Amino acid sequence: MSTTKIVIVGSGFAGSVVAEQLARAGHQILVLDQRPHIAGNAYDECDAQGVLIHRYGPHIFHTNAQRVVDYLSRFTDWLPYEHRVLASVEGQLLPIPINQDTINRLYGLNLDEVGIQAYFERVREPRDPIKTSEDVVLNTVGRDLYEKFFRGYTRKQWGLDPSQLNAAVTARIPVRTNRDDRYFNDEFQIMPKDGYTALFQRMLDHPNIHLELNTDFFAIRQQIKAKTIIYTGPIDAYFNYCYGRLPYRSLRFEHEHLPGISRYQPAAVVNYPNDHAYTRITEFKYLTGQQHSHTAIVREYPQAEGDPYYPVPRPENEALYQQYKALAAVERNVFFVGRLAQYRYYNMDQVIAAALKTAERILGSA
Ligand code: FAD
Ligand code: UDP
């Protein structure tokens, strides 16, 4: 191990994409992961009865980046999949993102697109500047919809009020005046045909890539004599928390297999903004397209402690991250990439794009 020149910490998208690109260019790569499996949070597997599930919550691929689709298409075929979500509000299951049908069904109206535009114009609370996640929603749809769909969900998900989070968090969810009920606007909305883990297996299947699972980088750090390290774990851990802990939000996933039921709920995901300790329930068969006489669901319970899943986008955390980033910038021959290492609320496609760039930088300087 100590003679391998390039060590990659983490086999999620960030680590695996860099590994694949460098291996293809002829480098010998050692990939470490502390978990017993590859694929990071995108890991999927069949449960005991053969239903394909996502162990770390629903992962839906969507992007506008042709380059990312072209790259991944080397390792997978695709199934078309448009994601749809309902929110449980006042006893109804209503489309989220908020659209024409959400408003008409919630308030018993019959407005057309122009009517919905006028409705938003009447109820919105204009904010200038738009700094927080509260500003974004009040500015577009006003207080009642904010309280019914966003405030409770956000408090539960982040343990913070929307007024304490950057605008970008709730700005992920569009607001529509038409009847489009898709969750995403992106040009490409597709799922890997054989799942994510199979895609990663193909990506990492290269004679130059050596994989060691169940291996914590920090436990063997002193023995590693690599010329180059690509680190995709939490950035504060790399620097031994010298400036204090960067907040990462965690989740507890409660998986359930439902025998003899082929459909549990009327959409892939149902959000619970105002009830229950969980934020949402996902039924995997919608996402995967799998035919099976049973079904499987997962409930997500947000929590402060546990595996780091989300950076928490707010100004004080960004300031702390910038301190760590300054240390990272002077750390010689170590590259920090990915959602945890760059402390960015990245989707998979953004991580893949960042990893491709990192590989280019490394190859350019090698
Ligand atoms: P990760 O996947 O977290 O991989 C990092 C790896 O590094 C892990 O395997 C970890 O075990 C390993 N590691 C960390 N520290 C060490 C160490 N010290 N030693 C060894 N190994 C270490 N994105 C989408 O595009 N669409 C979605 O629908 C979507 N849904 C999501 C739902 C949830 C609940 C979550 C949490 C995320 C979701 N994402 C989604 C985001 C997506 O998971 C990430 O963008 C992507 O997986 C990040 O890849 P990564 O390689 O940066 O990090
Ligand atoms: N959000 C909300 N209500 C919803 C859906 C989303 O308040 O019904 C807010 C919430 O703050 C959430 C953010 O929008 O964390 C982003 O939602 P997304 O579905 O993109 O979250 P992810 O899938 O990344 O957990």
TrEMBL record:
Gene Ontology CC: cytosol
Domain spans labelled UDP-galactopyranose mutase C-terminal: 148-345
GO molecular function: flavin adenine dinucleotide binding; UDP-galactopyranose mutase activity
Keyword Flavoprotein: yes
Cofactor: FAD
Highest taxon of source: Bacteria
Class of the enzyme per the UniProt entry, highest EC level: isomerase
EC number: 5.4.99.9
Keywords: FAD, Flavoprotein, Isomerase
Family statement drawn from the similarity comment of this UniProt entry: Belongs to the UDP-galactopyranose/dTDP-fucopyranose mutase family.
Name used for this protein in its record: UDP-galactopyranose mutase
